[in-house]
Amino acid sequence: MKRLLLFFCVIIFVLGSSNSAISMIINSGFETGDLSGWTSGGQAGVQSSIVHEGNYAAWIGTVDFNGDDINDFTGDYGTQGYTNNFISQTVDVSGMNSLELWYNYYTWDYSGWDEPGFEIQVNGTPMLSINAKDIDTGSGLDSTGWKLFTYDLTNYTGTTLDLAIYAGNTGDDSVQSWAYIDSGPGAPVPEPTTLLLLGSGFVGLLGYGRRKFVK
Measuring CA to CA, how many Å separate 197 from each of 45, 81, 144, 188, 192? Predict the structure, then answer.
């Protein structure tokens, strides 16, 4: 009986608290297949070839795997100024304790250029900024691989924040840089009625256990 009691206490605690870290970014995993819920500018869109989780991820900048300085998706050349290419959203963070997303930054460039080539801003302030030289290995195309960005909301006083993500060239319009953005789907936070039902079920099992072991 003690084991049963401990088991249900752990379940109720986990369901009631573990998902408080999930921020309410609309279409965070881009599983609509488009940029619904986001504002975008310049070269940005959604693709299904390189993802972190699910079927889709966003791309920002001039995607150029063959090194011809032309966007593989659009056929366009890159533009100077990484802030020309972006996705952004005003996010409701009420009751949340962190904002999380995954990024994968690519670049053909090197030291002295694309500084930065990728940036995440919160309320207009850079929270993550990566230069081409930060990942340049001297071997051509380089990538960070999928990395998790987390913004701590523990002491955040507002109920919303402005999230903006940029990628592309800085100082030139060739030797391209770009990024993919994705976020795994989070489990829904249980409603109070769900926790109540769990508690009722526990009480019922507790009563069953007493009837079973008391003679």
Answer: 42, 54, 45, 16, 9
> How far apart are alpha carbons 215 and 103 in whole angstroms?
61
User: DSSP code of 173?
Assistant: S
Classify residue 57 by burial, with Cβ atoms within 10 Å: 0-12, 13-18, 19+: buried
Counting Cβ atoms within 10 Å, is residue 35 exposed (0-12), middle (13-18) or buried (19+)? middle
pTM recorded for the entire structure: 0.78
Alpha carbon distance 90, 103 (integer Å): 19
Residue range(s) defining the domain that contains residue 113: 23-186
Whether residue 177 is found in the same domain as residue 72: yes
DSSP states along 56-111: -EEEEE---TTSSSB-TTT-PBP-B-GGGSEEEEEEE-TT-SEEEEEEEEEES--T
Q: Residues 8-61: pLDDT tens digits? A: 443 333 334 444 445 589 999 999 999 999 999 999 999 999 999 999 999 999
Q: How many domains does the chain have?
A: 2
On whether both 132 and 209 belong to a single domain, the answer is no
CB 103 within 8 A of CB 147: yes
Model pLDDT for residues 66-106, shown as the tens digit of each residue:
999 999 999 999 999 999 999 999 999 999 999 999 999 99
pLDDT of residue 12: 37
Separation of CA 165 from chain center: 11
